[in-house]
Design goal:
Layout lengths: L1 H24 L26 H18 L4 E6 L4 E6 L7 H15 L4 H8 L18 E6 L2 E9 L3 H15 L2
Antiparallel strand pairs: 1-2, 1-4, 3-4
Helix pairs in contact: 2-5
């Protein structure tokens, strides 16, 4: 019986040594975060702040799209500095989404990208570090508003699923980019 225990112990020790040697011999794979792009991503310049009238036009287009589908949402538009310019809450929209709509718009304009980029970074690229950045919201439904090649604000929608919020925001953003 002692012989069996000794053989098992020796086999385990040999396995540990082999695993350690393999771990030392295998270099770690390069992280996608180590990739250095040639051009700066999301570097579209900021422009003058969106006017109240244009912000209201974007909200009206977004609300028309939401109403067409029967999705009661909250819609916020911020200027190029992230300051609230206009807001609308559709009848029946959930109260928690008031602040979320504004947060999506603010995050989108500050980081010069749709909030879907944060959602994808966390869910598809496993880039959890995104969660450590101030003012990030990793849920789609925030889209920059671009006029004449410059970011003049952003629109944020909340109250439905992320994909529904994004559809409504896209309709609002389309009015500005004409």
């Amino acid at each position: 019986m002692k012989t069996i225990h000794w053989r098992a112990a020796l086999a385990c020790a040999a396995l540990l040594v082999a695993c350690e040697a393999h771990a030392q011999a295998t270099p770690p794979a390069a992280s996608p975060l180590d990739t250095v792009p040639e051009k700066m991503p999301f570097s579209q310049p900021y422009g003058a702040p969106i006017s109240l009238q244009r912000a209201q036009d974007a909200i009206q287009a977004a609300m028309a799209e939401a109403a067409k589908h029967g999705w009661p949402l909250n819609v916020a538009v911020v200027d190029s500095g992230g300051n609230l310019v206009a807001f609308a809450r559709m009848d029946g929209a959930q109260l928690a989404s008031i602040a979320i709509a504004e947060h999506k718009a603010r995050s989108s304009v500050k980081f010069r990208r749709p909030t879907k980029a944060f959602e994808d970074a966390i869910q598809k690229a496993d880039s959890k570090y995104i969660l450590t950045l101030d003012d990030v919201i990793a849920s789609r439904g925030g889209i920059p508003l671009v006029a004449d090649g410059k970011i003049i604000g952003a629109i944020g929608c909340s109250g439905a699923t992320g994909s529904q919020d994004e559809v409504v925001c896209t309709a609002g953003a389309a009015v500005i980019s004409k």
